[in-house]
Amino acid sequence: MMNLDNVVTDRRNVLRGAIAAAVLIPLGGSLMSCATGGPTGGGAAGTVSAKNPFGMADNSTIDSVIFDGGYGVDYVEYAAKILEKNHDGSTAKVASSTQIGTELQPRFVGGNPPDLIDNSGAQSIGFNTILDQLEDLQDVIDADNLEGDKIADTLYGGVLKPGTFDGKLAAINYVLTVYGVWYSSSLFEENGWTPPTTWAEALELGAKAKAAGKYLFVWGKEAATYYQTLAIESAIKEGGDEVRLALENLEEGCWSLPAVQSVFEAMHEVVASGYMKPGGSGTQFTAAQAQWSNDQEALLYPSGSWIENEMKDNTAEGFAMKGFPAMVVSESAAMPVEALHSTAGEPFIVPSQGKNVAGGKELLRTMLSKDAATNFAKTKLAPTIVKGLVPADGFGSTALVSQTDMLDAAGENIFTWGFVDLYGTNADQLVVWNTFLDGKSDVATLTSSLQAITDKVREDDSINKIEIK
Fold first, then answer.
1. pLDDT below 50 — which residues of the chain?
2. Beta pairing, strands 116-118 & 172-184
């Protein structure tokens, strides 16, 4: 998976435009409005008012389960305390999980899901399987925040589209995420290295890293598909919208498109040249990331912008983390090297069968208010979808400043996709990518394995498909 207050006006306006462009590619459909003004969902009804727009009952309990990943769960705990202060006698429970699908799918089946869920992580629940069990969250967007401003007016443009399926706002993605390749700018300056813009330059850098006793890349078993993300980014930049739409719509042979194959070939050369640190398939992902951020055994790591916060306790002093967009393959790429993958992430959902649906929405409303959103940006060094909250110095974060620089440089050349989360294929793809990065499969095997996963979803008539245009 990104906000600005004390930024100079011209820089802020440029960034606003860039961020708005970042999420203009929808996962399908347009927003569907729904009426507000009455209590929603399960549980006892409370009095509807400006301070209680969903009619949350007095002295009620809210059950939330939050993915415990790069951002932790304390930002939701912060909002929960605000809610409890505003609703005396009520309790907002915040439970953490790294296995959202495994732990919560049985609760959906049993009819007792939590009131608010951060449906994120490798084990997230495919939206196509639970879409009809989720609240339309347009009433949250139409409500006022705690400061009295309509939430819809406080958000960056387009940030609701990644959570909109068939016209239903089923999820509000809380964090504006910039994806890129991250590195230590101090290490690069010390050695006179330059971040690569092409895969050929990356291979040249790999040779320099090897000569210095380092690797180009490192990976961990739970995050092997970070390299799939990098591959898709590069392939879309190389081949354009044709590649994105083929993957999004699960087309036959989509993984065999020339642009995709050219990236796979480059990645295979990285592995075959010994530029990928061995053993990642047997290494816990944060331990592998520490090999990059703390031990500096590798130069580059592909990730979303949560990486700085995730590794804040395991990053070498003076690391000065920065990022750059995915490399292109050729000079004739369809998109410029500055083109960037960015989207709103961390999808929060409110199940319709929750015991306190109004409470789930109230906690989400609290999170979208200025106090809670500013706290997130300052403590996680990443912007939320609430605009106007990140200062020009990025709260002292080089990584956060580099995010704004990447967005500025990309302009309107910002893209995203959603088919992996939509159909819940990440778990199967992890196996394929761990094998490939381990050097135990070739490009042909990688391609056929990924295509088999895609074909299985496409040919399964029990799976609801959403056409992306």
1. 1-40
2. unpaired
